[in-house]
Structures are given as structure tokens and as C-alpha cells.
Amino acid sequence: MPKMVFVERDGTRREVDAPNGLSVLEIAHKHGIDIEGACEGSLACSTCHVIVEPGWFGKLVKPTEDEEDMLDLAFDLQETSRLGCQLIMTDALDGLVVKLPSGTRNAGG
User: Fold this and answer.
1) What PANTHER family does the entry give (predicted)?
2) How high is the pLDDT of residue 103?
3) Are 88 and 21 in contact (CB under 8 A)?
């Protein structure tokens, strides 16, 4: 089973099982990682914002225009920011590392 790493706000790295077909948001919730996901993956908020480690960013499917619009509302936006609800785990992403932003802003959700 693929694994991924969440870097929590305090810098703690947590490696977790990341089943194929689940979103980063769903994986976070499964393992008690502190990502809200207020709209439950319906692209109506930015509370599942994660910062992807630069080495992984280019391996991801490009964000949709809707995701980019929601990211514009995210707190602590970075060049490698994505919404966790839109990142679906595959074998190709085994080892993916994402960092939680310093905070969230529930804009639009």
C-alpha cells in the first residue's frame, strides 16, 4: 500500500498508509491529521489546503480552474499549494509529502 507523509504545523512528520483512490483529505481524516475540509470535497472552501513538497508538485495532476479559484482564498498560499480533496492517491504518489499551512481561512465554505 502506498504511504504518504504529513508535516504538521509544529514540524512533526507523520508517515501514514495512503490507500489508492482516497484523497489526501480523506487520508488525513482517517489518521486524525488536523485538516478541516469543511465542504467535504465539493470545491466550495479552502480548508483542506496543503503545501506539496516541491519535488512532488510536478507529479500531480494539474489543478482545475475551480480548484485554483478556491486556492486564491486560502491562507498561507504557496507556489506548491493544492487542495487536499483534489489530490487522489495512486501508486505513482507513493511517498508524497505535504505540509499543513500555518492556518486556514474558511472562505466560501
Assistant:
1) FERREDOXIN-2, MITOCHONDRIAL, FERREDOXIN/ADRENODOXIN
2) 67
3) yes
